[in-house]
Structures are given as structure tokens and as C-alpha cells.
Amino acid sequence: MALLCSPCHAEAKSSNDSLLNKTFRYHSSITRCEEDTSLTVYVRQNIDIDKRNVTLMVIPSMYSIARGNKQYIGETYSKIKIVDYDKFDSSIQVNTGTVPHNRKAMEFMQTFLMPTIYGNYLFGGYLISPFSEPNKRLYKYSITEITPDRSEIIFKPRQINIQLVSGTAVVRNEDGRIIRVMLEGEYDMIKFNVNIIMGDGCGLKSLYPAMCSISSDFKFLGNKLSSDFFSVYDLPIELSSDISNSHDRTLMGLIRPDSLTSEEEQLYITHDSVARERKATKEKDNKTDSPIEEIGDYLIERIKGNFGEDDQGSYRISPILNPLYLSYSHNKGITYKMKVRGNYNFTNNSSISLYLKASYSFKQKQLYYRMPIRLSYNKKKNGYLELEIGNGNRISNSGISEQVKNETLDSIDWSKMNLDYFKDFYVKLYNNVDLGKQWTIQPGFIFHRRTAVDKTGFVLAQKPYKYISFAPAIRLQLRPWQSKGPVFTADYERAIKGVGESNMDYERIELDASWHKPLYSLRSLSLRLSGGFYTSRDKDAYFLDYRNFREENIPGGWDDDWTGEFQLLNSNWYNASQYYVSTNATYESPLMIMAHLPLVGRYIETERIYVNSLFVEHLHPYMEWGYGFTNRIFSMGIFVATKNASFEGVGCRFGFELFRDW
Q: Closest Cα to residue 49, out of 105, 107, 109?
């Protein structure tokens, strides 16, 4: 018996699919115009604190409201330049409010104020958009016609996960343009509801909001806060470019697109009254401002700001004492890390920047640091001069210790001396320039000074305890498909004995192919193939130190170094072979294995599968297989290693992820 489908049902399904396809493709139908590349944006934030305790102080951007008032208001007027659909340059021109020192509280929510609903992600690289065609398999859709020219799309995730949202959208039947969106979800301790009215017309600004309101609730360890945001875009008033981060309340009153409520006005009145009383009391008692609050900011909060007459310079310092910056690995134990960034723009085409990364390994009792200083003299051609100073891993070489032990000094107990390990201080200087869109050349030199951790035995045996190398180097990089394909790199380094105090002579070549391929729905595939070898080495060149095959001594977040690291490999193997060949592969997805588990699966943000292999002398091969996941609180990975097809061991990697995006 043949089954007949209803013509009406088939026709409705076809119509719904057609409207969805129009919506998915509306973004690509818009032609970008030069005059549409900037927007003025007004944002108002209201914060109500229901409960709070001392733990609120360690949350980024919350220190300023962790005590004192329980209600705050803040307003900003900014200019946003659209670089790409989901990339923006934002500069605040006016900033007022009752948060102490005009700081921003719950700064992470600022990313929600410029939604890119037609992109892969809704907010600044977070949350999978239901209006991007590659993501449609993750959502269920139902469509209802509400007028002859408009329909409502209801979208729900097929699987409950914090990377997905639910809600409704009103779209135009003619071309699929979204007129209004209401959505709700949960991300990083925040439950939110967003109401977006999209821009009018058919140009670039129809892809961005005309108005956006957000209500959110935040709960963490007994702290309970609610926050409301209201933003208006593409306002007619454009301020002079000379106005930057002004706190002029009168000016804000002139450019504000609406009126404050009586409750909001009262917050300003109360704030001003308290400020006047505090100032009068200090003047009466001849007291100065207490540095306690400022010191608290430096210890717990991220520190950032601008300097220079026109704010050409900026700086950013990670918290000095924040437990969230601890991590753990099998080899290094507990590690604490911090970062310092600084930048100063001379012109649009030249600047100088500094980036200090440091970490302390409690297991090794070792402070590691790396500080590149970059002078960009031609940004259009990626021309820059970079000086990097740092200390490498404690490198080992048994050959040196064996020479020392073979000396005829029978009275010395060599077993009590740590002869194998050397501290490494290095300086690198490179000049980088692009030769067209596909080629980059980077000539320079590398200086290493390796000093024995325990000098005693070397002094007694009258052997050198310091080994210095000076090596001119050159790097060539080829990008045949530019940013859309793999990158091929070749490194050549030739040490010259006798330059300064250099007492080593060697020649090294390394080749590398890397590819990070973003896939749909927050998925990605990372691949790397590397190899290197020494073509020559004199008898005093004990140290094998490769540029692409080395232990990472300053751990970063899992997204910092996508190429992959060996988690369980003994550090001595990095300095044990005249050659190496390694492969690294990582597949990343938000909805893979653990995301399908009941209860806990909804909180799994990202999962990763790792496969790493290594061929060196005496290892044919060394293999590592790993599985890792990230949730709102931590990242964790489990790794299994084999050596020459025999089981080698199991280890883990752990790091705090709490508030990493804040």
C-alpha cells in the first residue's frame, strides 16, 4: 500500500526551508560600503547586588563592587570601527557612572553588546549562532507566518548545552532579513536574556543591532547579582576624536539618547553626596586617599589602561595574586603564571610593544620568563625588529658530566653533585619582513649562555662550567594559500666559535608544516609535522636545542599553543638526539563525547582528542594519546604514552578556566 504525503504539509515544509535558507544567506547578500564601517554606541548598565561575600573580590572586574553600595549605574559612549563582520575596534569617548574610579563591572558582558547573529558565533567568538547555515544541524526550527510579509522562527537546541541558545526571531519573508531576535541561554556562570532589534535598510548596518537590551543573573559561591544592559547604535551625534575616556557627566547628559529613570538619577545623586562628604571629611582631618583599595586592585584585578597625550600607549597586567592563574601538569607540578603587555603607537604604521610571560614551577623551584620587545617599522609589510630575552628549560647533557667524572679525582664523591643540568639564558634578535603575501623572511641571531647548576665539580676538575654560543640564523616562511591553508617554515642556524666568548660550533636545519583549520560549529582541526637535524657539531657543542621541538616552560591556556605539546615526555629527550621527527594532531569540538552524558554533559564547553608521535634516537616511535575537556571551572586532560610499542605511563594536565574570558 503506497503512502501518500499531504500536499499542504509538503508545501509548508518547502516554504519553511526556503525562508530558513534566505535567512542563512542574507549576510552574504550584503555589499560592504566604506561609509558603513563605523558606528556610535551608547550603553547603560544597572547592577543590583542581592548577596555578596569576600569571594567576589577575586572575580575579574568585580573588585570595585565587592564592598560598599549594592546598586550601581554606568554609562559609556563609544565609537566602533567595523574591521570585519565579527571584528571591531572600539574606543570609549565618554565613561561615567557610580562604580568607583569609573571602572567597568562585569566587563565580560560587553561582548554581548555587539552580537553577530549571522556569524558562526553570537558574541565575540562565544555561543553557536542558530542563523549560520553550518550550525543548523544543532538546532530545531519551527516557522509560523504572522503577517503576509513577516514570519516568526522558533529555534531550540537539539541537545542541551551551554554553547547553544534558544529563542525566537521575526524575519522578513521577502529576503530573510532578521528584524528582531529574542534569545536566552547560560554561559560562564551567567544566565541571560537578550532582546535585539536589528538595523533598518538593506546595507551593512542591517546586519547589526539598532537597539539591544540584556538582563542577566550571576551566581557564584553565595554571591548573587543581577545586571541590565541597554544599548543604542548608530547615533547621530559624533564627538570629536580628541575626546577620549572623558568622565564629564554634563556631556553624557547631552548625548544620551533617552532619559534616566528617577531611580537611576537617585543613584547619581547619592553617589555625589557621599563623594562630597568623604572629600570634606578628608580635608577636615587633613587625610590623603588610602592606598589599600589601589593595592587590592593591583593584587587581584587585571590592571590595564592607556597613556600618552592621545592614548597612543596601552598596558595590561594580569592579577599578581589570583588563585585562578594556577595550573598543574605531570612534569612541572603546580605552576603559577602571569603576563604583562604594553604597546605604544608612533604612527598608524609603526609601534613598539612588550610582552612579558613568566611562570614559577613549585616542583622545580624555577622561575621561567620570556620577554619579546618588538619595534614595528612597517606594519603594511609586517616589518618589525624583535628582541627576545628569556631563560630556557634546564637543559641536561650527560656527556659533559661523564667527562668530569672520568678525571683522576678519586677523592671526590660525584654522586652528591648535580652535574647534568645547566641553566639557559638566551637573547634572540630578528628582523621580519613579508616578501609579498605568501613569503616571509626573518634573518637574525641567537645567543645562548648555559651555566652549570652545580659548578663545584667542574671547578675541582678544572673543566669549564659555562658554555656560550653565538649563531646567525634565518627563517623562511611560505603561505601558499595565505591564511586559509598550511604554513611551511624552514629554519637554518650556524654557530660561530670565537665570536665574543662563544666556545661552540654547530649547524642545524629544521622544517615545519602547520595547519589550523577552523571547521563549522566551533570545531577545529590542528595538524603539525616537524623535523630537524644537526649537520655538524664540534666536540664542545654538547647541547641539542631545537627551535620547534622543545619543552614549553611557560604554560598557557589550551588555546594559546594549538600546535600540541608532549605532556609525558621526559625533558631529557629534548636534548638526546641529532635528529627528530614529530607529528601533532588535535581535533576540537564542543559536542563530542562527554557532552552527551546526562546532567554534566550540558556544562562541557569543549572537548579535544590528541595524537602526538615522536621519532628520535632510541625512540621509534614515542606516542601519546590524549583526551581533554573544558568546562566553566577547569580544563582537564588524560594522556597515555607508549615507547617503542611498550606502555610508558599515564598522566594528566589540569588548569583553572574559571572566568578566563572575563
A: 105
